[in-house]
Structures
1.
Amino acid sequence: MTKTVTIAHGNGGEENNELIKKIFYKHFENDILAKSEDAAVIEDGKLAFTTDSFTVSPLFFSGGDIGKLAVCGTCNDLAMMGAEPKYMTCSVIIEEGFSTRDLEKIVKSMKNELEINGAIVVSGDTKVVPRGSVDKLFINTTGIGEIVHKNISASALKEGMSILVSRDVGTHGATIFAAREGIELESSLQTDCASLYPQIKALIDANINIIALRDATRGGVSAVLNEWARSSNVCLEIEEETIPVQEEVRGICEMLGFEAIDLANEGTFVLAVAKEDEMQAFDVLQKTHITSAIIGTVTELHKGKVILNSSWGTKRFLDLPTGELLPRIC
Amino acid sequence: MMALELKNLYDDFRDGETIKAYAQIIAEDAKKLKNPINIMEVCGGHTHTIMKFGLLQLMPDNVNFIHGPGCPVCIMPKERIDHAYVLAMQEDVILVTLGDMIKVPGSNGSLQDARAKGADVRFVYSPMECIKIAQENPDKTVVFFAIGFETTTPMTAVLVEHVIKQKIPNILFHINHVTVPEVMVELIDSRDVHVDSYNNRIDAFLGPSHVSVISGSKIYDKFPKDYGRPVVVSGFEPVDVMQGISMLVKQFIEERCELEIQYKRVVNHEGNLNAQKLINTYFEKMDLFRWRGLGNVPESGLKLKDEFASLDAEVVYKDVLPIAEIEDHKLCICGDILRGMAKPTECTIFGTACKPTTPIGSCMVSSEGACAAYYKYGNLI
């Protein structure tokens, strides 16, 4: 472990895991936390409980803003445990000088997204700090949801199961990069930022037995797949060609030297189901996003690892993203 | 603002059927080879493609790769990184550089560590962003820590030109630009006491296309002529690399030794003459540049011409910059890897003490380094 915390420790990948395990888990140790799920399952499996902080630059981007993100992110963490989002708290840290007009725009955006989820904000907190103490505005949201589909777990994957993604991957990360100062690409790309509970409800209503579910936020789909491979001690074999990626996302990745599968998403989830549920789950997902896809299978080839199979017959490991996502030099 | 029109620029160059077809051609042709051939891909970008797309798995036993020194981050000696660190820690300095450079450990830590300690370190996508940073921070000095091969040098030269013409008072340069042909000569010419010679191992070169977009293929003229080593200038997509390898194998079976261009869609013999002129206006060759792991290589680095010394951070900050050369960790064999003498997996600390999250050697730091590529894509399979 390095002596100081660096940006890399917040990447959702290898360094992030190390920081969490070696500092937070070490001292907060308990059975619920140790499960390391998207949301904690409490009260004998009745409720899901989660918290998340949101810092993003720029605050407003194509298809969303930090407010939408703050509601989607927390509600999605609940949805990923098969829970219907119910109650939320909202805490904001604002840099002095921040425009109240922008603040209201952000709060309105939160309201819209709360309605989609059927959740309400029941408590909150506001802090204003001197200029330079935070970057414009940070939002923390905590949510409670009622579990409607039990026993979803990252540790429950078994040989033969199928892996699906709910839509094309990497659009949020690519949109944010395209909008960053210094790049400012003209593109029609929009973030995937969206509330996922409606889709999860559709899967539950269709009687699909969801084995594992996770929204692929920081660290992207790579991080989810690696986490599942490790938690369930299985191998995930992914057919690289089947991973859906928008052309523009691919273009940005090419320019900056990234892989779409490593980029953050805010409205894309990975799903594991038994082989017999595969086609039905696929049909449900397709109703929301035509780009959803079956991307792989659980095997026992290299336990704890994710393998990408290419269409020309080669294999390689797909590792957790490491370090800060930095554009390549040449 | 620029329009994003990259659609379909790469699709055909990643086509599975085409890659398989080239694998077949190479396998058939390789049967006619009299001796095994060792191809050095000079550039880390090619190493990355070879590992990422699993091209190594498609090669017959008698076609081997030697991973060359061409990664701007990998070749940076520790003392230069220490320069960047010291400059970043100066009270009124904003240290600006490109991507991966901020992760490379020097003797006091990396630029990332300096940033965590409060230094103002920024990475940019284009050196021209330095102008905006300088304008927004008139009371600070922006030091652009310039790195890279022929590919990135013109961008630095453009920034130098702007700084001079617009009389921007608060941008300085720390130049670490290096050139490809000189280090290729070094790899062929140099001798090692432990082995017969390096030149017994490198039979041919796969030249990086982006370098030749700027410098033209002419920079490799001497390799087939004077050194008996064929060169194919190749693009970076998997189909490009497979075609480039196929072209080299064909040269061997047809007993030719030539300079060929695979990446004809952009590269020509002369290159970008405007860019070359710009580079020659502001930069000149250094007598020696010390490459990490390789030592001093004559005329392989560039520096600002003396007439622009007032823009040179190495001159302006002379009193605070360390001068001692620093050797690599003694267990690290990056030097041998960069020379093509060893594979990453032959290093005793590969994947154990030295990993992308805790890199000891430079080849593990950059995503284009041979060790990082092996670690990320190549272990076990």
2.
Amino acid sequence: MIGRLFGFRGGIEPDAHKNESAGAAIRRAPLPGRLEVPLRQSTRATARCIVRPGQKVLKGERIGDPEGVLGTAVHAPTSGTVADVGRYAMAHPSGLETRCVVIEPDGEERWIDHAPFDYRNRSRGDALAWLRDCGIVGLGGATFPAHVKLGRGEGIDTLVLNGAECEPWITCDDRLMRERAADILAGALILRDLIGARELVVGIEDNKPEAIAAMRAAAGAATGVGVVPVPARYPAGGEKQLIRVLTGIEIPYGKLGADYGVQCFNVGTAYAVYRAIVHGEPLISRIVTLTGNVEHPGNWEVLVGTPIDDLLRLAGPRPDTDRYLMGGPMMGFALPRLDVPVVKGSNCIICASPALFPPPMPEQPCIRCGECARACPAELQPFELYWFSRARNFGKAQEYHLFDCIECGCCAYVCPSHIPLVDYYRFAKSEIWARERDKSAADQARERFEFRNFRQEREKEEKAARLAAKAAETHARIAGEPAADAAATPSIQAAADDPKKALIAAALARAQAQKAAVRPRNVDDPSPGTQAEIDAIEARRRRAAAAAEPAPAQTSSPAPETHSRTPTR
Amino acid sequence: MIHSPYIRKPASVQRVMGTVLLALLPGIAAYVWQFGAGILVNLALASAAAVAIEALAMQLRGRPAAPAVADLSAIVTAWLVVLSLPPIVPWWITLLGVAIAVGAAKHLYGGLGQNPFNPAMVAFCALIVAYPALMSQWPAAGRLDFATQFGLILGGARELDAVTAATALDALRTGMRGGDGVDLVVSQGGAFGAAGGKGWEWVAAGYALGGLFLLATRTITWHLPAAFVAGLALMSGAFWLFDAARHASPLFHLASGGAMLAAFFIVTDPVSGATTPRGKLIFAAGIALIAWIIRSFGAYPDGIAFGVLLMNICVPLIDMKTQPPVFGHRGERP
């Protein structure tokens, strides 16, 4: 079992503000008048819609089929009628739209038939498919599909359950652990079995003593289960930070926990897994903390697809609320609009007021004090990244491990010059991505162009070979029957003697060969009408060929033009 | 649009600079106690000049002057210039020093955060090269009343021999040149106190106290002062153990000249110094080494300013070569 804790370097200790909502027990949010369920609930994958407007659905009925490796199913959160399938704004900083299924609840909350999944007597693959079909994604915020994380069934030593919840204000995991510890633990043990880990470690920040006590009570004397308080130091709940604290293992950028024998799931995910396996319920709701500048902060069990403005009414934002943050104040974002639905990754909505979240101070010059480097949990030199990003020296920024930045915001939090450091890194990353995209587009265009040249060259060579063969054949025929039919073929006879006429004969042969070469395959078997047209054209062509000099071999004259056009595409 | 994080620690450049000014007060108090209040005239003069030059420079660069003046960085520079000059230099030397530090060494390179060289040390070096005589007139402890100092600063009669005395470092150099051993020089000269220069050891103690305050408030990290002190102590200690008659003790080196001011306030300048933990150690130890070499074998009594500028040149290389390993990438180097 875990003998000692390992520290991670850096981190900050902002005011936790957990007390506002931590005391409020989870309540079920009332059924809204309308649910907009985004079909995109897992990372980089949109489910394929399988319902039509007007169709009746039951609670838990599948409305979206999983597509692709990272896809998960999406389900109706309640019974009712599909009112629309279309693009609606989603909870995203840019107000991006996504495909949603709009459901008008009938208020009956009628479930589909659902039964437990006997994962012990079924194959691992079946169990993972079950989780995918129940729409289980990581509820810590990143919504990574659980079945993908569980994918590797061997080489995993430790399953880490993330109950750290280090962002200020958020208390949904805290309440879940206090109230449903046994179910979380049951789900975690299922996860442990599925991933083939030996031990289970639950990491909880030490500012949640009730949650720790509840989880410890639930764990009881279970073997290979440890509930470990970790120091409350943001970002202790970052997956890699928590793994580091609990196991001492450092997982670098671009690597998965599985590569190091450890995998991490959020407590909410474990609870959802429990519901899916033991009760056969798909993931259709989650706990959301409503807090900040509100009359009644609290934690609500909310159906996925509930509009956020409906939800906010439950908390009662005060009049001086000026912004609404989704997620925590360190890594969350301000909602550009409120008519957007709750998704599986929505853990918290904070009503912000100028008093609670003062506007940022004006930016001052960087004095290289190094505070950011001391606060950085990824142990980067944030001020160097800042200088490089500012100077658009992106290569250097990458050399200094720009992509190891987890955008936790610690550097910007401590910066005495009030520089929005994370924004500079986001800018640099997006520029680098854009350049990569441009570069691969240019590479593709160049490959296309080169292949085109190659193809034309090859066609030319093939044509020359055919011509040579044809000419050789003609010569052979002439040589084979010189006297026998001399009168019948005077021109050829003459050609054999006269070099000029030989040229003409060769040209004729070339023209014939060309005709054979350009004959398109799709007219191999034409209809009589088409055949008549073709014959007419052929006749014209023959006349023209006879009138003119032999057609020159096709050149690659279009190539330069193509060349000049290609890179701009 | 404002992005995350939405909360900020209540920190500012102004607060950092204010903490540094606060930390200088014990040293200044000891200065006044041992050498009279003349230094306060210089500090006031230099502060006003620094603010004026800062505002003017920002104006010329077409930027708002108020925030730059309010960040107190110009005043920190001004105070450091004054504290490295003799306290009775004529007023125009002080102004020239501040003009070089703030106007040239800082704003010609692009203002706060952009200067590759420590502004106060640029000013000191320029002045000691340009005005070696004026720059070597240090008063003896307790010799001058405020009126005399005031008169000297504002350009009154300069009966220098009557009022100045060699500093401990200077006296030691001169005595050693004459072939005397350390013990003899120290026993004969009135410039020496118990640890360093007479009176100066108290000022050094004041700076050290302020430095501990900076460490306690996490304004500076331990790396720079520790490496500087250790570097100077090890270098002088080795030679002192080897031949105590020809080399002063580590304690003397640390308590004399600008050693303590440098350890906590000069080498710790974040803008022009090394930034990585290992880089800071190399940077500060390098300054200590150069300072000791100049003190022992060079043409100037103290060499910290030259050490700082020389090591400033090396900072980009030091930083590049000492990048700490990133989380999850131990064993790799960028």
